[in-house]
Amino acid sequence: QSLLRAQRKTLSPALQEALEVFVDEEVKHGAMFRRLLQTTSMERYEKSDFHFYTPGALGVRFAGLCLQAPTLFVAWPWLGMILEEKTITYHRAYERAANAQQQNGGAELDGLHRAVHRFHFLDEARHVQLESVLIEHLWDRAPQWLKGINRPLLFHALGQYTRPRDKSVSSNIVRALVAKYPRLNPHLDTLLDGVRDLKNDATFQRSI
């Protein structure tokens, strides 16, 4: 929305229309996943969209600045593309697991989660293409000094995923999983070590 307001005169009609559809679909996706979280874990998400990750005041302010100045934080299409691609990966993992369970028997994946990820996937494949266009429009045209400022910002933004720490989202999810399934408690330290070691896992880093 900020990009549309800031550069409406310089954007082609086709790109303007694509961005307007993109914004509408992202609002829909947010509502869809919020409803999913509240349906499956109301005690965690009744009053907030955040549980495993709680942004600090500085992070909230910085995110607000980036949203208000999309032509200054020109790395955001890269961040968006990476996140869009990972959601596609999650959808495919859900489908592979569901198909394997149908063939081999056993407990089925929750149908609601599978359906939400499938509907999300239908839009995200197109969103990745739009992110590519935005990279050309913003990143490729940016001066080198602006790219130099944005690279460490992007590196930091991806840190929760690429370099998980003891208090990262990944570690918090592992602790919640162990709390739900106490039989995993003897393996908690091993699981947390595995999360921390991802920063040194070449295969994992190449997958990003």
Tell me the radius of gyration: 19 Å
**Biggest beta sheet summary:** none
Helix fraction by DSSP (H/I, runs of at least 4): over 70%
Compute the average pLDDT. 84
Total number of helical segments? 11
* Secondary structure category: mainly alpha
What percent of residues are in strands?
A: under 5%
Secondary-structure element sequence?
A: HHHHHHHHHHH
Number of strands: 0
- Principal-axis shape: globular
| Cα end-to-end separation | 27 Å
The unreliable regions are none
Give an overview in words.
The structure is a single chain. This protein is mainly alpha-helical and 208 residues long. Helices cover 74% and strands 0% of the residues. It has eleven helices and no strands. It has helices spanning 2-7, 13-40, 42-45, 57-68, 76-104, 111-139, 144-157, 159-162, 169-180, 188-196, 202-207. The longest helix is centred in the middle third of the chain and has 29 residues, at 76-104.
